[in-house]
Amino acid sequence: QGQIAYSWQTVAGIPSLVVGGRAGGTGPEIYLVHDVRPIQQALEQLRLALGVGALVLTLVAVVVARLVARGVLAPVDEASRAAERIERGDLSARVPVTSSDEFGIWADRFNRMADSLEDTILRLEAAQTQNRRFVADVAHELRTPVAALVAEASLMRDHLEAFPAEARRAGELVVHDIGRLRSLVEDLMELSRFDAAGEEVRVAPIDVGRLIRDTAAARHRDAVLELPDDRVVVDTDPRRLERILGNLLDNAREHAPGALVVVRLRATAAEIGIAVLDRGPGVPADRLGRIFERFFMADPSRRGGSGLGLAIAAENATLLGGRLQAHNREGGGLEIELSLPVTQPLPHGDEPAILRDEADGRSTPTSSRDRP
After folding, report:
1. How many angstroms separate the Cα of 219 from the Cα of each of 32, 248, 254, 301, 341?
2. How far is CA 42 from CA 49, 58, 67, 230, in A?
3. Whole-angstrom distance, CA of residue 149 vs CA of residue 176
4. What is the 3 state secondary structure string of 48-89?
């Protein structure tokens, strides 16, 4: 019996299939050489055709998938664009309802939600406008009679010693309460100017550390000052900066009586920070985010105060391009920090100064070239 075998070989430089064997046990060996180049060419063509076909099928599948996805996700995309418009303040944005399927039902519900949101916002804006108009009207109506009361209270204060002993305490309370009423009316007037966009910012180079020392001496003498060794000078409105710091110190004195109060100044190349820290009771976490709202009282049971001091401070901070932030301190107490951007540096050789106007007790800025 013979044996047959095959092998892939290159014969004379030609790829070939060699098949051979021996006929019988002692017969001659016979080999057949077959040129396989046509077969290889056919296989290459088949491989190329399969590759191109797979690529075409993949591209067709991708295109079909994108078309299907676009059709399915079109309502979601419309809703996303409508939500972005609403976020930017365009309350009229709606999603077109183009079908009656689940997406159509969803778009209709989105539109109804947007209608309700628009109606609520418009009503709140109308109520806010009415409230601000009422505050402005009340402030203007009270201004004249309160001015008369202040004059009378000043006269009464100068003659309290002439009052009978049993009436002197009542006179002191009247003078004190008229002073509080005057402060309230002044706060309301300031808020009305904010609402009417009637406030102006007058910028001057200010030695912030000196302003802090002067304000603390006038509003909270026991406050501990933590000021950097180097002088910090910024271009800002000194009256508004003093107003902000004064209100923060008043807030600390009223809500943390007898507690340690610290005023801390930090400065970087981009901004300065003025923080007022106290060791009082702090503010409940659920109320902390509202302390800069008008008329908001962190402790409703506490008497005194109008709930306007921090709101006015926040309005002034915004006018100066800054912001107020508050958080409860670890171990108890509250920290409120004013952050202000640093603008133009002080010109060389120009030294700021804060001169106290003894007539009205307020600090007014000047520079070395302004002094006689």
Report:
1. 115, 10, 11, 25, 25
2. 10, 24, 37, 87
3. 12
4. HHHHHHHHHHHHHHHHHHHHHHHHHHHHHHHHHHHHHHHHCC
Q: DSSP E strands: which ranges in the chain?
A: 3-11, 14-22, 29-35, 204-207, 224-226, 233-236, 261-267, 271-278, 323-328, 334-341, 352-357, 362-367
Q: What is the CATH number of domain 204-370?
A: 3.30.565.10
Looking only at Cα atoms, what is the longest distance across the chain? 154
Looking at residue 30, what is its pLDDT?
Answer: 77
pLDDT recorded at residue 314: 92
In whole angstroms, how far apart are CA 271 and each of 205, 236, 326?
A: 15, 12, 17
Q: What is the pTM of this model?
A: 0.58
36: Cβ contacts below 8 Å, ≥ 6 apart = 8, 15, 16, 17
Q: Rounded distance, CA 216 to CA 211, Å?
A: 8
**pLDDT computed for residue 161 by the predictor:** 82
Three-state secondary structure call for residue 33:
strand
pLDDT at residue 197 in the model: 72
Q: Specify the pLDDT at position 302.
A: 65
The whole-angstrom separation of Cα 294 and Cα 192 is: 12
Give the pLDDT score at 51. Answer: 92
Give the pair of three-digit tokens for residue 285: 């976490």
Angle CA(180)–CA(185)–CA(186) in degrees, nearest 5? 95
CB neighbour burial string for 37-68, b if at least 16 within 10 angstroms, e if fewer: eeeeeeeeeeeeeeeeeeeeeeeeeeeeeeee
Check if the beta carbon of residue 312 is closer than 8 Å to that of residue 243.
yes
- Residues pairing with 148 in the sheet: none
pLDDT averaged per 10 residues in sequence order, the chain, 372 residues: 76 83 72 83 90 92 84 76 85 82 83 89 84 76 81 84 82 84 79 76 90 92 91 90 92 87 91 93 88 81 73 90 92 92 56 43 38 32
Query: Which pairs count as long-range contacts for 120-128, CB under 8 Å and 24+ apart, including other chains?
Result: 121/91, 122/91
Phi-psi region of 12 (alpha: psi -120 to 50; beta: other; left: phi over 0): left
Nearest to 219 by CA among 253, 173, 187, 192: 253
Query: Is 349 exposed, middle or buried (CB count within 10 Å of its CB: 0-12, 13-18, 19+)?
Result: exposed
